[in-house]
């Protein structure tokens, strides 16, 4: 069934019932001298390319590969359209490795035809903080599909991760592989219902007119919570404290320090937005919310070419109720002209989704760990990790 995945140190479907297997690494590290020294062979027409994302021309090629060949929904109506600035942000966190930005190009034309990436992260599973690679942006050009190139890319990124003495990884996918630690549902909150209906992202509900629908999703013009403001550089220490305390509640979550928070959560126009509540009396930072910007190309529509989507990222409430905080996040997203606000049912998100008029999407997101077993998996609400 899974000719490649059966050979890898991941939870196998046949072991699912075996509760005697312990939590933790599936296989032990090997000495670095035993890590294969040279790249895996590619078909003769192609060559490996370690990507320099500071090179604007290369970044443009990567952007274009993904814009035309990356993830689509099940009916091929939309395709993720990560911006160049977003890709640079996603792939260059503190202590990133350039060797983990792996392209494949045609030897003759030099055209970029495939890509896979990793970035380093510390991820806690129960009480074990593990150095991992977060693997993302695996993409093979549409014309080269089903030729078993993906396993070569995955083996090569694994080799380069091993060379840094890192033996675990985390990744998400819309497809089922051996074996998810949990399966999450996407939820969607319409901000611009007329456009969403026009492009086929959503439908007019039964017994609903367009004007009733527009009224249903209407939001105030400005955030309601006193002290709600954009996060700034001076807030990094306070936000790190809030976030670390909050993420400690989940079974699997990143172990963020101040450098990570500065990189992953300090606002960057059209990439990541973060807001917090500063108490007007004590000036204490009590609550925090964030979302990242990931537009989708609208395929085959006469009126529109892109959908502007915000994706819920990390949110922490200690004083402002989470539902009120997220309502303010919807309000600022609407002000900034997003068409839809998306969220997974991770962390405590279930507590506000229905109340704030999110509806379940048709997509799922499966979370995976490589070479790390979590017996019986976890519930989405036990997961404190959002990958881009
Ligand atoms: S998920 C998004 C993945 N990208 C897309 O869906 C873009 C559109 N599709 C494509 O470009 C986020 C191609 O269809 C791809 C597959 C490239 C997906 N993950 O080359 P073949 C990520 O980036 C297996 C893992 O013939 P293809 C996360 C498939 O099950 N495996 O297929 C990435 C089969 O193996 P099997 C996937 O369609 C995580 C084999 O690939 C997969 O031309 C990567 C077929 O290969 C997926 N999304 O290319 C793993 N999709 O055993 C990281 C298919 O079943 C692991 N496959 O025969 C950790 C590594 C680091 C470890 C460090 C210690
Ligand atoms: C790794 N970082 O399927 C990511 N999106 O629901 C890789 N559906 O947008 C894996 N099909 O339900 C990504 N509208 C896996 C996800 C791939 C993309 C995907 C889904 C998520 C999606 C939309 C559009 C469906 C179009 C037809 C959807 C319904 C919205 C509606 C709004 C009003 C209230 C009810 C719901």
What does this structure look like?
- The protein has 388 residues and is α+β, with helices and mostly antiparallel strands.
- The chain has helices at 56-69, 84-91, 149-162, 193-198, 210-216, 236-247, 258-265, 322-335, 350-353, and strands spanning 46-50, 78-80, 101-106, 112-125, 128-140, 168-173, 182-190, 228-230, 252-254, 272-278, 285-293, 296-298, 306-307, 309-312, 316-317, 340-344, 359-370.
- It contains 9 helices and 17 strands.
- Strands 1, 3, 4, 5, 6, 7, 8, 9, 10, 11, 14, 15, 16 and 17 form a 14-stranded mixed β-sheet that branches. A 3-stranded antiparallel β-sheet has the order 2-12-13, with helices on one face.
- The radius of gyration is 21 Å and the shape is globular.
- Bound molecules: 2-oxopentadecyl-CoA (NHW) and ligand EN5.
- The site of 2-oxopentadecyl-CoA has 35 residues, from strand 5, helix 3 and strand 6.
Q: Provide the succession of SSEs.
A: EHEHEEEHEEHHEHEHEEEEEEHEHE
Overall structural class, as computed from helix and strand content, comes to alpha+beta
Report the radius of gyration as a whole number of Å.
21 Å
* Biggest sheet features: 14 strands, mixed
Number of strands: 17
Q: Say which molecules are bound, naming each kind only once.
A: 2-oxopentadecyl-CoA, ligand EN5
Shape: globular
What's the helix count? 9
N-end to C-end Cα span: 29 Å
- The overall average pLDDT, rounded, is 98
Which regions are unreliable across 5 or more consecutive residues at pLDDT < 50?
Answer: none
Strand portion, in percent? 25-35%
Share in helix:
10-25%
């Amino acid at each position: 069934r899974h000719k490649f995945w059966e050979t890898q140190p991941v939870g196998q479907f046949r072991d699912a019932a075996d509760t005697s297997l312990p939590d933790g690494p599936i296989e032990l590290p090997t000495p670095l001298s035993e890590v294969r020294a040279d790249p895996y062979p590619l078909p003769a027409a192609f060559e490996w390319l370690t990507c320099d994302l500071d090179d604007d021309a290369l970044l443009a090629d990567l952007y274009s590969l993904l814009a035309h060949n990356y993830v689509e929904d099940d009916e091929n109506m939309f395709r993720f359209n990560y911006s160049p600035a977003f890709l640079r942000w996603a792939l260059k966190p503190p202590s990133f490795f350039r060797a983990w930005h792996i392209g494949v190009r045609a030897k003759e034309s030099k055209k970029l035809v495939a890509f896979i990436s990793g970035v380093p992260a510390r991820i806690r599973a129960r009480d074990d903080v593990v150095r991992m690679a977060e693997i993302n942006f695996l993409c093979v050009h549409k014309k080269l599909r089903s030729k078993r190139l993906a396993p070569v890319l995955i083996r090569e990124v694994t080799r380069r991760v091993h060379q840094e003495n890192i033996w675990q990884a985390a990744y998400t996918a819309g497809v089922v592989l051996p074996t998810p630690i949990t399966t999450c549902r996407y939820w969607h909150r319409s901000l611009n219902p007329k456009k969403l209906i026009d492009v086929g992202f959503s439908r007019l509900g039964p017994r609903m007119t367009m004007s009733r629908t527009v009224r249903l999703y209407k939001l105030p013009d400005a955030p309601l919570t006193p002290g709600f403001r954009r996060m700034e550089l001076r807030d990094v220490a306070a936000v790190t404290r809030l976030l670390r305390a909050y993420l400690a509640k989940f079974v699997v979550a990143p172990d963020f320090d101040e450098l990570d928070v500065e990189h992953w959560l300090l606002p960057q126009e059209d990439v990541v937005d973060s807001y917090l509540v500063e108490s007007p009396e004590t000036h204490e930072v009590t609550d925090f919310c964030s979302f990242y910007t990931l537009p989708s190309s609208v395929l085959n529509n006469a009126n529109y070419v892109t959908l502007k989507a915000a994706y819920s990222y990390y949110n922490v409430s200690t004083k402002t109720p989470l539902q009120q905080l997220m309502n303010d996040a919807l309000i600022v997203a609407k002000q900034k002209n997003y068409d839809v606000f998306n969220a997974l049912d991770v962390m405590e998100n279930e507590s506000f989704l229905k109340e704030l008029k999110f509806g379940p999407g048709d997509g799922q997101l499966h979370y995976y760990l490589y070479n790390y077993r979590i017996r019986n998996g976890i519930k989405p609400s036990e997961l404190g990790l959002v990958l881009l």
